[in-house]
Amino acid sequence: MDKTLTGRCMCGAVQYEVNPPFTGVISCHCKDCQRLHGNYNPLLIAEKENFKFTKGEDDVEWYNSSESSERGFCKTCGSQMFKRDKTGPKIKISAGNIDDTSGLQNVKNVWTKEAGGFYTIPPGEQT
Ligand SMILES: [Zn+2]
Ligand SMILES: [Zn+2]
What is the pTM of this model? Predict the structure, then answer.
């Protein structure tokens, strides 16, 4: 996967563009993610410096979800879009927000001990 990806929230107020390299898609099965997303949370891991908003940066609300990280969602439609370390170089983008996900693969699953009973854990390394 070496192409520029674009994505947006459901209502279209927030739009972005992100360039490689990507670490790949990592699915988080923790209970926090399930509460926020209604399901497990597949995140594309990218570098903050390769990410930019093309529309609606001010339409994102950032929420302190833990001591070290925050999550961003659209103020209008509520789409859960981002998770980022407050100090680290990475941004984690909800894979479902990305326009064209062909060619993306789930490489890893984390927090599988908290996985929901109603779904199957996707292929990929498990921790
Ligand atoms: Zn929206
Ligand atoms: Zn999680």
Answer: 0.92
